[in-house]
Amino acid sequence: EVHLVEFGGGSVQPGGSLRLSCVASGFVFSDYSMTWARQAPGKGVEWVSSIDTNGGFTMYKDSVKGRFTISRDNAKNTVYLQMNSLKSEDTGLYYCRTTLRGTRILGQGTQVTVSS
Which residues of the chain have pLDDT under 70? Predict the structure, then answer.
């Protein structure tokens, strides 16, 4: 059975940092690109960042460029999102996701709250 489980959320003050992790199981992790997305309170889900299968190509939402870094460790079936210089507008439920044979797979999410 396919699972994605996120860890690492929490509450931080503006300017703080968090590192999110997403552990995958049930599929060949190294064969699939991975994405982080988030949902702010009262808003829809928005794409944040993606990484290709071996980590050689990454993409970021403009508002997080220079602050967030996506990476992966295929030996550990894990994708990470290092978030620095956090802002209040980064608050939301963060999901990792991938698409397997046309089906989008999501984790349960981990909450990030940035507030003074």
Answer: none
- Closest to 9 measured CA to CA, from 73, 93, 115: 93
Closest CA to 95 of 45, 60, 55: 45
Rounded-to-integer distance, Cα 48 and Cα 98, Å: 13
Convert the pLDDT of each residue in 17-26 to its tens digit. Answer: 999 999 999 9
Phi and psi torsions of 30, nearest 5°: -70, -10
| 56 touches 50 (CB < 8 A) | no
How many other C-beta atoms are found inside a 10 Å radius of the C-beta of residue 61? 15
Structure-token pair, residue 101: 């044979």
CB-based contacts of 94, cutoff 8 Å, min separation 6: 6, 9, 20, 36, 37, 38, 48, 81, 109, 110, 111, 112
d(CA 36, CA 101): 19
